[in-house]
Every structure is written in C-alpha cells, then in structure tokens.
Amino acid sequence: MIRIRRRGGAAIPEPPSHLSPHDLLSEALSGILQRPGRSMLTMLGTVLGIGAFVAVLGLTATATGQIGERFSLTKATTVTVTDQPRTDGVAPGANPPSNFPADVDHRIAAIDGVRAGGVWWPVPGAPTVSRRPDGPDEGTGLSVLAATPGAVAAMEPTLTAGVTLDEFVQRTAQPVVLLSEAAAKRLGVSRLDAQPAVFIDRVPYTVVGVYSDVQRQSGALLSLLIPASTALERYGNPAPQPDHGAQGLVATRIGAAPVVAAQLPLALRPDAPEAFTVVPPPDPHSLQDTVTSDLTGLFLALAGICLLVGAVGIANTTLVAVLERTQEIGLRRSLGARTGHIAAQFLTESTALGTLGGLIGTGLGVVTVVSVAAAREWTAVLQPATTLPAPLIGTVVGLLAGLYPALRAARTDPLKALRNT
Predict the structure, then answer these.
(1) Contact 287, 306 (CB under 8 A)
(2) End-to-end CA distance of the chain
(3) 255: how many CB neighbours lie within 10 A of its CB?
(4) For 55-162, where are the E strands, in sequence order?
(5) What pLDDT, on the 0 to 100 scale, is given for residue 98?
C-alpha cells in the first residue's frame, strides 16, 4: 500500500514503512522481557526437550564403551554346550548316558583359546539337604549341582574359605561339597577348620570350601557343588534335555569364543559331533547396538514429547500475547506498520523463545553428560553433530509454534482494535 501526501498542492507518493532487523529484534526482546516469568515458563518445555535430546545422545555414546567392555569380559568369553543323549537300549524310566566323554575337561582344555571348561548338571531326584543326618530338609530354595573341576573353574567362583573341587576329588569320587555363601548360612557353616559336613539325602559330605560369587552360571549362587564322578556313582546319569540335562560350560580368552565354539563338537566326540549343540556368545557389537538403539529410541521419544509440550506452550503464550496486545497492534497499524511487520514481530518473539530454550537446554544436557560421566568415572563422549544443531532445533520449534499466532496478529483489523481502546 502506497500512501499519498500533498505538499504545495502536488501529490507526492510516500515510501512504504520499513522495519529494520535491529528494530524488529528490539521489539521482540522488549515483548519477551515485559513478562520474564511467563517467558521462562514458556521456554521450560523447550529447555527440557533439548536438554533431554542432548543428554540422551551424549549418555548413550558415553555408555556404549562401558557396555561393550563389560560385555566382552563376561558374555563374550562364555560358550555353552548341550547334548541330546540317545535313548536306544536304555531301560524304561532310566536316564540315558550323556554324550560328554569322561575326560571332558582335558578335551576342552586342549582347544586353543580355552581358559577352563567342563560339564555340570543338577543332581536328579531333588535330594534333601540338612545339617544333621536325621534333621529336616533345610535345602528349600537350594539346588545340588554336579560339576567337573573344569566347570567349577569356568564358573570362576570367589572363594571366601577353603578350596575348590580339584582333579583328585573328581578322580576318586570323594564325598565332598563346595557351598555357596547362601547355602553355608542356611546350613550354619561358618568355619572350616573343624571339617564340617552337611548331609545330602542323609549321606555326609565334607565341606571343602565356601564361595560368595561366580562370574558365570548365576544359578550356582544358591547351590551346593559336588564332584561329577560322585554324582554319577550315587545318582546315576543326569536327566535328559531339556529337563536339567548335562551342560558344558567353557570360559575362553577374549576374541576366541567363535573359534572355540566351532571346534568343540569335534574335540568332544570326533565320531558324533552332531550330538552336541554349541551356543556361542552373541556378537557384542550387535547386542550393544540393539541395547543402544532401544534405549535411545525410548528416551528420544520422551524428548520429543517435551519438545511438543514446549511448542504448545510457546504457541499458547504467543497467542495470549496477541490477544492482550490487540490495541498495540491497532496503533502500530495506524502508524504505518504493515501486516508483514506485525507477523514478523510475533514470529521473532516465538523464535527467540525457542532459541533461548534450545541454548539453555543444550547447556543443561552437556552438564548432565559430564556430571554423570565424572560420577561413574567414565570418559564423557559428546558428538559435535549432536550438540551443535541442538539450539537450531529449539529455533525451529519456536518458529513453527509462532506461525499461527503471528498470522492471527497480522490479520487483526486496525479499526476494530482501536475501537477497543
């Protein structure tokens, strides 16, 4: 619209009104600072959303190395083996013999990359456990496991007293038992200098050691371990799979598990390698990526919800500001402000709120990542591709949230607005 003014009887076109970027930014900042409390609350959703976005990606990247390291020290060095005993020629009701050979520990140990390995199984028949030969069953919640010395070594128990099961007790089928700390407390075994005994199915077993933790086979934490040879003499063959059958447990060096898993069936039974099912550890990188993507997706969804709440808050506050400043809008229009100037002013206010929220949220996200990493003694990892665009996301959120209120302000009729003054 071109205004016409007259000077000395001549009509001179008046140039259209102009609003410089400096003036536009000053007006938007003035509008924000008029109600600083409301502006801060408006930015809160954006601050939380951007902060969660930066913190989630930063903590995910930081924890990735920790997950991979812990995984490689446990799961990536564990190989399990199960067999399917043949039932040909076995009497009805009897358990078939296992396919694992008698010298299973030595065959597993001969594979390059193996640190320890052997066979274990739950003793069949749910034996009773007590501290006296005629005492009541005190083994509720406890299990009796038969294990070769190699299997016990692969479990890596943390001994608190005594010794572990060795080749001698296995070779001579000694009636000895290795107690978990939970089993020792249940059975009242506190010291080993008097060579205490516990009774399994009313048969005495000398306690040779107590352990508090295991690195593999967590079920052993509530168990009593007896030599595999002793269990075979007194209880017979282990139950067939899948009901508590014999299982091979192998601890390998880091990186050797795939090769060990491929060689195990031939090493155990060159004549029938198909009798065994070997379960190698899953790929640590794929597991790590799966865990990371699941957690990242969950928390990014929460961050997206926070951003949506922030956008709604900015839109609502900007719209309320438009309604409250109707008279101001009418006055500006009457003084020459165009519809584009009005829209730009309110759009700049909402964009500035989003940008400030993005900057504050990015700072909080970075502080969160660094604080958590320092508390856990981790190395903080912050990708520039994550942190640098974060304030821009806040800007985009503020821009989109302010579109409708800005358009509504631009469509305000100046005459109706001035009538309300």
Answers:
(1) no
(2) 25
(3) 11
(4) 78-83, 114-122, 129-130, 143-147, 158-162
(5) 86
Strand partners, 197: 206
Q: Is 238 left (phi over 0), alpha (psi -120 to 50) or beta?
A: beta
* Contact present, 123 and 150 (Cβ < 8 Å): no
pLDDT at 160: 94
**Mean pLDDT value of segment 51-67:** 72
- Asked whether residue 233 carries a pLDDT value surpassing 60, the answer given is yes
Helix (H, G, I), strand (E, B), or coil: what is residue 412? Answer: coil
Instruction: Give 30-64 as a DSSP string.
Output: HHHHHSHHHHHHHHHHHHHHHHHHHHHHHHHHHHH
* Beta carbons within 10 angstroms of residue 252's beta carbon: 25
Query: What interhelical angle do 21-34 and 339-376 show, nearest 10?
Result: 60
Asked if omega into 157 is within 30° of 0 (cis), the reply is no
**3-state DSSP assignment of residue 158:** strand
In the block, residue with structure tokens 């456990």 = 129
> What is the residue-wise DSSP string for 83-99?
E----TTPPTTSPPPPS
What is each CA distance from 293 to 34, 112, 285, 368, in whole angstroms? 43, 35, 12, 20
| DSSP letter (8 states) at residue 308 | H
Cα–Cα distance between 151 and 240 in angstroms, integer?
19
Least confident of 82-91, 251-260, 347-356: 82-91
pLDDT tens profile 272-294:
888 898 988 766 555 556 556 65
The Cα 348–Cα 354 span in angstroms is 10
Least Cα distance to 232 among 97, 104, 105 occurs for: 97
Residue written as token pair 């930081």: 62
pLDDT score, position 15: 53
pLDDT exceeds 90 at position 266: yes
- Tell me the C-alpha distance between 182 and 119, whole Å: 23
Q: Show the tokens assigned to 342.
A: 């009005």
Q: What does the buried/exposed string (b/e) look like for 312-321 if buried means 16 or more CB atoms within 10 Å of the residue's CB?
A: ebbbebbbeb
pLDDT of 2 over the 50 cut = no
Give me the helices (H) in 282-325, please. Answer: 284-324
- Mean pLDDT for the stretch of residues 20-39: 66
CB 176 within 8 A of CB 125: no
Beta carbons of 128 and 201 less than 8 angstroms apart: yes
